[in-house]
Write a structure and sequence with these properties.
alpha+beta; four-stranded antiparallel beta sheet; 207 residues
Length: 207
Amino acid sequence: PRSRGLGDVYKRQNIDSALLGDDNAMADNQPTYEFHHSWLKYLFWAVALSCIAIIFNFVVSNSSLPQIFDILFNGFFIAGALFCLGRGLQTQSVMTITANGIFHRRKMRKPIPWSEVRSIGFTTIVNHEGRDTYEIKIFVDNSAEYRHRLPKSLELLSGFYTTEKYRPFKIDANRFQENTAKVYNAFAAYGPPLPPEAKEKLLSRRN
């Protein structure tokens, strides 16, 4: 496991406190579900982007294109590769579900209590490979309160989107290392009822 700084520990403690409550004794008989993204996918993209940077560098060095193109495009691909590598090396859970609420590190800036969740939707999407992927939608009365805030330079633009307050959180159930059956069991244990289709689809597939 990677070492964590004081900032990581403090943030993690705050999240745990919000999800588990002040009385952590409840965790003894009500399990916490944790989900992680697949590090293999991020490693694949890190290697792929690195290879593209090498190939592009070779092409540009043997052409008459200005060197600025080499710097810009190589910088773009290398930055992407480092980003994917960093994501792949992270050991923290991406999504945590407890009896008190749900927290998705990439989509939420703070945990959402189940009392704030109005309903949960479910959609089947066919990806570019022709495979079914399953999307869980969490509807909250004021989702903007829990969503990551835009940079200050973009806050003005966000005012033009009147549906931002009610836009659901969308979670891809296929992106986790854990199988989709565990995703269903976690939501079914604590959250509002899922559509019948969710049980049929999620329990019948093991990623």
